[in-house]
Specification:
The chain is of the alpha/beta class. Helices cover 44% and strands 18% of the residues.
Length: 283
Amino acid sequence: MTVPEFATRPGLQLHYELDDFTDPWDDRPFMVLQHGNGRSARFWYRWVPYLARRYRIIRPDMRGLGRSQGDLNIERDFTLDLLLEDLVAVLDHAGTTEIHFCGESMGGILGLALAARHADRVRTLTLVSTPVYIEQQMKVRYSLGHASRTDAMEQLGIREWVAQTTRLTRLPADAEPGLFEWYVDEFARGSPDVQVAMSRLVNAANAQDFLAQVEAPVLGLYPTQGQITTCEQERMLKDGLKKFELVHLPTNYHMVQLLFPKACTSALISFCERHDDSLIEER
């Protein structure tokens, strides 16, 4: 594993991890694993052993999270357009042209934007528990009785807010207590100001306009009865995307990539290899 860092502008260092256990004589494709709201590259650790023999894995940290740090203006520097610019800069720095992109939750919204605006860069797109937008009932639920989600985060503190909302929607607290505590601790390591800014961003994000512009084949890995990604949102993906396949995992919790790493990566490998083969045949 290598850990590249580079500056995109004065005061901002972007970081990503490169996991490559492919044979050095075999020019294997790149795959991006993009984390979601408030998390970091570390949250993909369960997937790397399954994927890194087949693909050169890039795991970026979004700006302000993980090790992508800098002098950031909380009000100005957290927009979908800027996150997309950062992602393209990471791809350029890593020397990629065409990639398989896999994003979880907010990371999938970023993937839809990338596939819509930079179609030549995306061979396949995989969405893991990615909402098209955050529905009003989830905004209310995540406010935990406060005026808003961000008010709850500020008044309860990030760790307590994450613990309560994760127990509700992201992970079953009793099934793997170690995983639950690790998740909460890792999320809470982020700057409180950045976590609040990212929450404002995800609350306002809407990927609906990107769907019709996506030409790449899309795989969806979703909980069977999602609390954040509802059946209605799945219908929007099916209706709006040109090529969409859906795989359900047997849970109503959001973090399917942590709960079912083997099943998720098996479906992802099968999907990507199928489309790699079709591209080879076309050439």
